[in-house]
Prior knowledge:
This protein is an alpha/beta fold. The chain is 43% helix and 16% strand. The protein folds into 2 domains: 2-89 and 196-271, Vaccinia Virus protein VP39 (Rossmann fold, 3-Layer(aba) Sandwich), CATH 3.40.50; 112-193, Putative methyltransferase TM0872, insert domain (DNA polymerase, domain 1).
Amino acid sequence: MLHEVLEFLGGRLRVLDMTIGAGGHAEALLDAGTESLTGVDRDPVALQLASERLIRFGSRFVPIAATFAELPPMEPVDGVLFDLGVSSMQLDDPARGFSFREEGPLDMRMGPEGVGARELVNTTSEEELADILFLYGEERQSRKVARAIVRARERSPIETTFQLTSVVASAVGKRPGGPHPARRTFQALRVAVNRELEELTASLPQAVDLLAPGGRIVVLSYHSLEDRVVKRFFLGEERLRILTKRPLRPTEEEVARNPRSTAAKLRAAELAEKAA
């Protein structure tokens, strides 16, 4: 939803991109007149790719290796952008272990730190696994899937994405024409491994604190859990004036160009006044 992002943030002088990824949004904003853009990402590969892509902007682009909740002290900014979830770059790399459609090690970490999905799947109790799948993946058959995972790992550790996919598919079955049976399980594990909802919840108030008067915050989310956190925060934050009464969705043309944008929702708000 690049067009919509530019409508809200294009031309703003100082922007903080909380999820720089490969630098696509950042490049468009810098081309549109942003004088200084700080790009944050926990993924060193993403930061390197973004830095190479944006080298032509010189000192106008500043990369920072950090998670949402680890921002160093900064000067106020005129806009903050969050593009949540896993990036296409991460999803398309089998070695990262994010995709149930590609064979790879069961990892799912967005950065080099922390515990990966392999450890989570092979060491977490059945009850805790079921809770993770239900809370973070909204998997209605979470207990059945958790039970199948525990039984499978008792025979041998679950090491790869395809091993896990097979276990989940055998537990819940697959409806012809329906979504992949492992989709919710993989989402849940990824969210848990990277503490995505906790990071987002901690980061949103920090982002508002960084806004200059009249500054805007734009959030692109890709599943209902993320969007719910953003919606509740916007409604409960007295300093913000909501600019999108309902979340904006991608056009049919954009979905045709990029099917992964289908679930995207964009919410935007503006700092009405600084707290005293």
